[in-house]
Amino acid sequence: MARMERGDTNKSMSDPLIFEKDGHVVTLTINRPESRNPLGEAEDADNFTEAARRINEDMDVRCVILTGAGSAFSAGGNVKAMREKGGGFGGPGVQIADRYRNGIHRIVKSIWNMQVPVIAAVNGPAIGLGNDVACMCDTRIASDKAKFGVTFLKIGLVPGDGGAWLLPKIIGMARASELFFTGDVISAEKAENWGLVSEVVPHDELMARANELAERICGQSPNVLRMTKRLMREGMMNSYDSVMEMSANMQALAHHTDDHREALDAFFEKRAPSYKGQ
After folding, report:
1. What is the reported pLDDT for 20?
2. Does 166 lie in the same domain as 232?
3. For the chain, how many structural domains are there in total?
């Protein structure tokens, strides 16, 4: 996995996942453009796991943008390898199941468990696993060239990458069922109408818009930003009472931060706050 900091001129453009940090924003680029950015190769789980670890441990990071190189966001799994029973798709079923747990599932879990907001900048088709990866992000902005589909049934597979759990939560059970059961691929415009993406922008403006949104997110206090994301994640899975209890405890911590005092001072002094993450 390539690591690039601001001003770095030694950029490896051959790595399958490019990691670039610019200020408080990390951009992750899925980088197999010649094959439309398939995921599921042996190194992918380790690359995404390592990227998530670095992001979570670096308190200077406040937002992540995930995108694809070339014309696609991600076309999903490697269908050619599936046909040839190569890579992780050969052998007994129990072995394939273990490879899913230790491979593809680690990719989507790594994205899901990033502690800062993650924006999917969907630059082209997001199909199958690619759609699930986009859904693991907190919000999605689409190029007008993007397309979305969960086409597992069309190749005789179940949605095995987390989408069966998450997609109905994003667009509702009826629309998720339609996409899963038909295998239809929908346009960026329809994805916006269905609530799968928050906005559609001209293709050439996608990354500028994603970075603009990232900078606005980075203007928040970094500690409460991470806590707010955690609360929203817990709210999807736990009871009202447990989330309320967690909210009370996190709010108590927030009241004792220097950033809370800075936010109040800035509010009354009618100026922009300057947060230190303390």
Report:
1. 98
2. no
3. 2
Amino acid 80: pLDDT: 81
Please write the tens of the pLDDT for every residue from 48-82: 999 999 999 999 999 999 999 999 999 988 788 88
DSSP 38: B
Q: Give the domain extent around 87.
A: 2-218
Give me the count of residues in the chain: 278
Query: What is the spatial distance between Cα 45 and Cα 267, in angstroms, rounded to a whole number?
Result: 44
> Does 88 lie in the same domain as 112?
yes
| Terminal alpha carbon distance of the chain | 31
In eight-state DSSP terms, residue 76 is B
User: Based on the domain organization, do 155 and 227 belong to the same domain?
Assistant: no
Q: Are residues 211 and 265 in the same domain?
A: no
d(CA 139, CA 122) in angstroms, rounded, equals: 10
DSSP state at residue 272: -
For residue 5, what are its two tokens? 């900091």
Distance CA(226)–CA(194), nearest Å, equals 27
In whole angstroms, give the CA distance from residue 125 to residue 71.
8
Residues 69 and 176 grouped into a single domain = yes
**Alpha-carbon distance 172 to 43, whole Å?**
33
